[in-house]
Design brief:
Number of strands: 12
Strand content: 35-45%
Structural class: mainly beta
CATH architecture: Roll
Order of helices and strands: HEEEEEHEHEEEEEE
Radius of gyration: 21 Å
Number of helices: 3
Distance between the termini: 48 Å
CATH class: Mainly Beta
CATH topology: Pnp Oxidase, Chain A
Strand order of the largest sheet: 3-2-6-9-10-5-4
Number of domains: 1
Largest sheet: 7 strands, antiparallel
């Protein structure tokens, strides 16, 4: 198919389909040269490489975080815990105050890059910006992890189908020596399933 062909998928259908993919929730933070701090809720966050340790975040190109991160050359990523739904909603709120006032009542921890991270989160990463790529209406920011904190006892916050969810602990099953998968009776080399009489 020609890449120049216009898509027949409308944005509403695209958003609904993407909502079937569960994600974690993060707050991306950055500090400007004058000490002003900014934060925004982001769920487009992923590991990229182990050597070097790289992560990426996708930010709305019109958002204030883009210019601040490009000027600072650094950013922090805080992976929210299941008890931080209100924090996620707050940093996604378009009407939150600008600058450091948006962090009133939100405890912070200093970061190795000068960009603070949120306290009490499931994990946090301090990143030095490596590259950025404009893609559609977003900026893909690639960062090298230079410091991290991990609190494995905290359950992460999950976002799925437009709402927050939590992970449920599956009951432990007896370990088996092999794996069993359902077979497709139509595949060659497999015996067809017998139906009960």
């Amino acid at each position: 198919m020609d890449s120049r062909t216009a898509s027949t998928v409308d944005t509403g259908a695209f958003r609904q389909a993407m909502a079937s993919f569960p994600t974690g929730v993060t707050v991306v933070t950055v500090a400007s040269g004058d000490g002003t701090v900014h934060g925004v809720t982001v769920n487009s966050f992923s590991s990229v490489s182990l050597d070097p340790m790289l992560v990426l975040v996708c930010l709305n190109e019109t958002g204030r975080a883009v210019g601040l991160i490009e000027r600072a050359g650094a950013f922090g990523v805080s992976v929210l815990s299941a008890r931080q739904r209100d924090v996620s909603s707050w940093f996604a709120n378009q009407d939150r105050p600008a600058g450091s006032a948006m962090f009133d009542g939100v405890p912070l921890e200093p970061g190795a890059t000068g960009c603070p991270v949120l306290a009490g989160v499931a994990a946090s990463f301090n990143c030095r910006m490596r590259q950025s790529y404009r893609a559609g209406d977003h900026l893909i920011v690639l960062g090298e992890v230079i410091a991290l904190v991990h609190r494995p006892h905290l359950e992460p916050l999950i976002f799925h189908a437009g709402t927050y969810k939590s992970l449920e602990q599956e009951p432990r099953r007896r370990r088996t020596t092999g794996r069993r998968f359902a077979r497709d009776p139509g595949l060659p080399g497999q015996r067809p399933h017998r139906r009960a009489a």
